[in-house]
Amino acid sequence: MDNYVLEIVIENKPAARDPEGETILRDLMNQNGFEMVKNVRSGKFLRVNLEAESREEAKSIVYRMCNDLRIFNPVIHVVTINVKD
Amino acid sequence: MKVAVIRFPGSNCDLDAVYVLRNVVGLETELVWHKDFNDGDFDAVILPGGFSYGDALRAGVIAAYSPAMKRVKEMAKEGKPVLGICNGFQTLVESGLLSGALLRNDCLTFICKWVTLRVDNTETMFTNIMERGQIVRMPIAHNEGRYYNDAEALREMEENHQIVFRYSDDNGRLTPDSNPNGSVENIAGICNLEGNIVGLMPHPERASEQILSPFKTDHGRLLFESMINTIKRMRRM
Amino acid sequence: MTIVDGVQVDLKPEELKQAEKMLRKKPNAVEVGMIDIMWSEHCSYKSSRPILKLLPRKGARVVVGPGYDAGVVDIGDDYVAVFKIESHNHPSAIEPYNGAATGIGGIIRDILCMGARPIALLDPLRFGSLKSPHSRWLFKYVVKGIADYGNCTGIPTVRGEVEFDESFESNCLVNVTCVGIAKKGDIFLAEAKYPGDAVVLAGGSTGRDGIHGVTFASRTLTEESEEDRPAVQVGDPFTKKLIIDATLEILKTGFVHGLKDLGGGGLTCASSEMANKGGTGIDIEVSKVHLREKGLTPFDIMLSESQERMLFIVDPSGVETVTGILNKYGLAWSNVGKVTESNHVNVFSNGSLVAKVPAKLLAEAPIIERKVEKPSYIDTLQAVEKPPMPEDLSEILIKLMASENIASKEWVYRQYDHEVGVRSVVKCGEGDAGVLRILGEDKGIAVSSDCNSKHCYLDPYNGGAGAVAESCRNVAAVGALPIAIVDGLNFGNPEKADVFWQFKEAVRGISDMCKIMQIPCVGGNVSFYNEDEVTKKAVKPTSIVVALGVLNTLKNIITLTFKNVNDYVVLLGETLSEMGGSEYYYSIYGIEGGIAPKVDMQREKSTIDLVLSAIQKNYVNAAHDCSKGGLGAALSLMSIKSNHSIEIDLSKINMGNLRLDELLFSESNSRFIVTTPESNVDNLLKLAKTRGVPAYRIGNVSSSSRVVFRYEDNEIVNCDLKDIKTAWEKTIPSFMGR
């Protein structure tokens, strides 16, 4: 068993709106000298430490956890899971 | 005597503040759209509560970059009274006019309830008609009201009498139960070194009329009447 | 589902044939899409319109009745109150946070587009039992969605209710109500009356959101629904707040002739309804619509349900002023068309006509006659054996106060800003109704939303009447005269005769009760298809009624807390053995059946009138109506809220054949608990006698810390107030984790 660190990012689906991201882009960045920024999406970030036999197992545990515990709602969210080196 | 209440995009307690200032306290008050707040001869300015910019990223952070804040900073430098209520407090902190940070409530939900405050500094422009240790009642309604500052800054603020209001019980004791959001040292409101800028999370405009208070109190008026007292004094000088 | 020209529609083949006949041509894909959405149950009310006609809509105070975005009633002194109820059940069941949030967004727009400032929200909610993790998930995020949206827009949520029942497990009910205030002359109608006026679309940009969202609400939920995308939109309360501020400023310019929000059915619905009401037509050029995504077809644009959009009908001379205000608030807008004399909604794409449908055809879908058949369960469930008389009524009372449906809902309303606007005089938890003052006047309004779905299930007629009765009682208990209602009707699949029977009975009950109370129904909402596709189980019929009352002074508002030790406690009204659907039967014995409480309508009116008179004459200083949990729960709640206990002698009440547990826990209608000082108790009893209302002096407010009910010399209940309070307070937080 090894220790793995995984990063989970939960965002609204690309097809769905992200009013918070839009507000940050339009009213904070573009308004205050950063017009070159074209798009901002906001989300929730979790960094998870767990024990597993392999990277693949670690990733699969986290996927299952995200689904079973409704850490994200597939109706509106997409989730990205990365194993940190 | 004329004061301004600034409306940022998403402010929603601006009309409340204007109503109370005009009708309860009897002060000439102008509601100014943030983009239009660049001059005008105001004796004081109030940044009201609400959800400026929908609280995107962090409450008050986008409003801190509003062009209105340039004039607010000038007024502050001129020593005029500046009051930040709730989201206004958050904006003053984000723009560097007040020290510290306002974080998410430790219970992680929005809380709307009446709290009890102890007045710890009666030398500010908004508390000079109150008494030290006075117990006042006001409601809070916020998501990100947990005041935080590092130990060293807090020590300095204590020494410089910058803590204005603290959450307390009916006897003035700073109990954990009386702290609704986990603010460090039960801090509910603070001021700058000079005492002309005050920020607080509770809403004095909702506590200025007995009919709205479950305790039939109107302590919120004391802040506004202190402000008037200050302006009168300043004009005489 | 049918496929026409590659377009998936929910209309049945017969309905499509009828449309073709009315159009006198075969509709193209865009036209089919427009008709499909406008003729969906959610948009057209095709099943319910004939039944809803039963509801009384007229009255001296009615300024705008049903048929517009919200009802408008005269509250005196040139002020009007505007209110409406909506449902967002299906979206909330699959995405509770955004489903509930966009529900709030929608109802706010309905009030705003009448020209009124929205000043309060109410949230009547229903979920499965909190023992189910799925229901806890829905509950948590629905409340959060309502909180985040309502708080951000600065509209206080002042009143609500939550019911928990297994039938709502896969079909939660999220009904939201908004109330607004305006001066009579400021009211706008959603009508496009003047050909030549410009059609300005303002607010959020248009994307592929919710295409077929309205037809989705007219289908039952299945496994596939969880994949349905993008069926639930993301709420944007920041933009909504800007829209509220901009709209109220724009309306002051005088250049706006009509206003409508875009909700279900999007641009198709808004344009066809405004044209139909105005007797005109509207031309829309879709290439002018400000878009969020590339590649949207005319079909997409006309059917999109993107949020936060308003349609302004503007005098051509005022377009610059109006759009100038929109620019000030940073709101996107586009001038998308004009009002015409044509009676058609004509859709152009870069100058080419792509759709042409008469506005009337879109806005007035043909009615579908549904069959009714009384379900067999009604009679079966009535015949239920009485449970044994319990030994320890103290223990039963505490258990009842801790049951989900009676326990404190503070966990919910602490998350709502119920004070913003400085109008909230009676706040959540303080009285039987939310009370808001009119700023600058000695005047206020009171609102309450109520329904007992268990009662409705056993007896839809009396359940419907009971919802009117309960919400009027709640409004009267604070001292306000009930003057109008709106109703939110939530039922299963109307294509099933037993469901449609429930619906018809509930509407009949509401109508009859309104007629006796002389109160009009000025609007409402019907949500059908709340049925689990797999189990075919429908929700318990839920006919929510929101009553609005007027207070002509703020000086005599009555709350439910005791005011003085030794004050007399008086029970007004008669208690009957009507245990069916009671919380007592369900949470103590698991019994669902029995005879549900009936409404003696004349008696209900007399009792409500009596309470209002008594309050006006200063005979009472606290009032609370009896509903869930009956007399026992009502007395306990008043004690908990006052932190003062009571000594009650039940033998003072006319019991008839009632058992003691029935006396304590029956949920009979037409009853209030009031308190009065010694100096006024005789006056109160005399007044009750002249009005023909039974009144029983049952005890006193005491200074002990115990809640005591006796029957003559026998102690029936003796609890520590602290124990009842703790049990009542901790149920919901203990389920929800804090």
Keywords:
heterotrimer; A: about 80 residues; alpha+beta; Mth169, Chain: A; 3-stranded antiparallel beta sheet; 2 helices; B: about 240 residues; alpha/beta; Rossmann fold; 9-stranded mixed beta sheet; two-stranded antiparallel sheet; about 25% helix
General description of the model:
- The complex is a heterotrimer of chains A (85), B (237) and C (738).
- By secondary structure, chain A is an alpha+beta fold.
- Chain A has 2 helices and 3 strands; from the N terminus they run E-H-E-H-E.
- Chain A has a single domain, classed as Phosphoribosylformylglycinamidine synthase subunit PurS (Mth169, Chain: A).
- Chain B is of the alpha/beta class.
- Chain B is built from 5 helices and 11 strands; from the N terminus they run βαββαβαββββαβββα.
- In chain B, the strands form 2 sheets. A 9-stranded mixed beta sheet of chain B has the order 2-1-3-4-11-10-9-6-7, with helices on both faces.
- Chain B is globular and about 45 Å long.
- The model of chain B has no long low-confidence stretch (mean pLDDT 96).
- Chain C is an alpha+beta fold.
- Chain C has 2 domains: 2-363, PurM-like C-terminal domain (Phosphoribosyl-aminoimidazole Synthetase, Chain A, domain 2, Alpha-Beta Complex); 558-738, Alpha-Beta Complex (Phosphoribosyl-aminoimidazole Synthetase, Chain A, domain 2).
- Chain C is 36% helix and 24% strand.
- Chain C has a 7-stranded mixed beta sheet with strand order 10-12-9-13-11-14-15. In chain C, strands 23-25-22-26-24-27-28 form a 7-stranded mixed beta sheet, sandwiched between helices.
- Chain C is globular and about 90 Å long.
- Chain C starts with a strand and ends with a helix.
- At the B-C interface, helix 1 and strand 6 of B face helix 7 and helix 9 of C.
Break the fold down into its secondary structure elements and pairings.
The complex is a heterotrimer of chains A (85), B (237) and C (738).
Chain A: E1 2-12, H1 19-29, E2 43-52, H2 55-68, E3 77-83
Chain B: E1 2-7, H1 14-24, E2 28-33, E3 44-47, H2 68-77, E4 82-85, H3 87-94, E5 101-103, E6 111-119, E7 135-142, E8 146-148, H4 151-159, E9 163-167, E10 187-191, E11 197-200, H5 220-236
Parallel strand pairs in B: 1-2, 1-3, 3-4, 4-11
Antiparallel strand pairs in B: 5-8, 6-7, 6-9, 9-10, 10-11
Chain C: E1 2-4, E2 7-9, H1 13-23, H2 29-38, H3 41-44, H4 49-52, E3 62-64, E4 71-76, E5 79-87, H5 89-94, H6 96-112, E6 117-127, H7 133-153, E7 157-164, E8 173-183, E9 198-203, H8 213-217, H9 237-251, E10 256-261, H10 266-278, E11 281-285, H11 298-303, E12 309-314, H12 319-328, E13 333-340, E14 344-349, E15 352-358, H13 359-363, H14 377-382, H15 393-401, H16 410-413, E16 424-426, E17 434-437, E18 444-450, H17 453-458, H18 460-477, E19 481-490, H19 497-517, E20 521-527, E21 542-551, E22 568-572, H20 583-589, H21 601-616, E23 622-625, H22 630-642, E24 645-649, H23 660-665, E25 672-676, H24 678-691, E26 695-702, E27 706-711, E28 714-720, H25 721-736
Parallel strand pairs in C: 6-7, 11-14, 19-20, 24-27
Antiparallel strand pairs in C: 1-2, 3-4, 4-5, 5-8, 6-8, 9-12, 9-13, 10-12, 11-13, 14-15, 16-17, 17-18, 18-21, 19-21, 22-25, 22-26, 23-25, 24-26, 27-28
Helix pairs in contact in C: 6-7, 6-9, 7-9, 9-12, 15-25, 18-19, 18-21, 21-24, 22-25
